[in-house]
TrEMBL record:
Biased composition (Polar residues): 184-194
Species per Swiss-Prot/TrEMBL record: Pyrocoelia pectoralis
Listed Low complexity bias regions: 195-207
Protein's recorded name: Ras-related protein Rab-30
PROSITE patterns named in the record: RAB (PS51419), RAS (PS51421)
TM spans (from-to): none
EC numbers, comma separated: 3.6.5.2
GO molecular function terms attached to this record: G protein activity; GTP binding; metal ion binding
Key words, A-Z: Cytoplasm, Cytoplasmic vesicle, Golgi apparatus, GTP-binding, Hydrolase, Lipoprotein, Lysosome, Magnesium, Membrane, Metal-binding, Methylation, Nucleotide-binding, Prenylation
Pfam families found in the cross-reference section: Ras (PF00071)
The organism's taxonomic lineage, starting at the top: Eukaryota, Metazoa, Ecdysozoa, Arthropoda, Hexapoda
SUPFAM superfamilies registered for this protein in UniProt: P-loop containing nucleoside triphosphate hydrolases (SSF52540)
Keyword Hydrolase attached: yes
Cofactor: Mg(2+)
Task of the protein: The small GTPases Rab are key regulators of intracellular membrane trafficking, from the formation of transport vesicles to their fusion with membranes. Rabs cycle between an inactive GDP-bound form and an active GTP-bound form that is able to recruit to membranes different sets of downstream effectors directly responsible for vesicle formation, movement, tethering and fusion. RAB30 is required for maintaining the structural integrity of the Golgi apparatus, possibly by mediating interactions with cytoplasmic scaffolding proteins.
Length: 207
């Protein structure tokens, strides 16, 4: 039987990015294998767990899904500190979500560990109305020393690959020098989903 302690590594992964870019859908796709209909906006922070296997070792990913809305910023910032990996998500069909990336990076630099693994994700590649070409995302990621991937939570494209890559990279870092941010469990419990957000409301900006 699988017990709570039946894993070799525990990594905390935090998703950030503007409201409506698809953070929750990416997490639900990976952890539950579904694309939720009528997804409501995240209130504060939510988390899900999935255990994966890398090189015959069990790796438990604790995935924290933060609210993109500005009014939750002080809550979500407090979750950066103990993250092993931060996934910064934008919507490839919504230019303002890409334009906000430098603001998100400033937040990450201020609140996260300097050793955190940073990944840039352009989500919603199933959409026809792309505004940000792949090479623009790639270039941004390269300039900021981030791994880059484009995904579709809707079509399950590259979602598994994204989280498996993170698990593998974190295991490698751990194996090499144990130079990861110290894991601290958080007892804050502010989560839930109420109001609804649609694709068209994806462009709320950081101020
Ligand atoms: N076409 C398409 N729509 C998506 C995809 N991922 C998410 N969406 C839609 O985008 C909207 C927002 O998705 P969420 O996952 O709630 O976005 P979020 O980033 O968690 O938003 P906040 O919780 O407000 O920060 C929903 O209407 C989803 O159905 C995708 O890969 N493709």
């Amino acid at each position: 039987m699988c017990t709570m302690e039946d894993f070799k590594f525990l990594f905390k992964v935090v998703l950030v990015g503007n409201a409506g870019v698809g953070k929750t859908c990416l997490v639900r796709r990976f952890t539950q294998g579904l694309f939720p209909p009528g997804q409501g906006a995240t209130i504060g922070v939510d988390f899900m767990i999935k255990t994966v296997e890398v090189d015959n070792d069990k790796v438990k990913l604790q995935i924290w899904d933060t609210a993109g809305q500005e009014r939750f910023r002080s809550i979500t910032q407090s979750y950066y500190r103990s993250a092993h990996a931060l996934i910064l998500v934008y919507d490839i069909s919504c230019q303002p979500t890409f334009d906000c990336l430098p603001d998100w990076l400033r937040e990450i630099e201020e609140y996260a560990s300097s050793k955190v693994l940073r990944i840039l994700v352009g989500n919603k590649i199933d959409r026809e109305d792309r505004e940000i070409p792949t090479f623009v995302g790639e270039d941004f990621a390269a300039r900021h020393n981030m791994y880059f991937l484009e995904t579709s939570a809707k079509e399950a494209e590259n979602v598994e690959k994204l989280f498996m890559k993170i698990a593998e990279d974190l295991m490698q870092v751990q194996a090499k020098n144990k130079d990861l941010p110290r894991y601290e469990s958080s007892t804050t419990n502010i989560s839930g989903r109420t109001s609804s957000v649609s694709d068209s409301s994806c462009c709320s900006k950081l101020t």
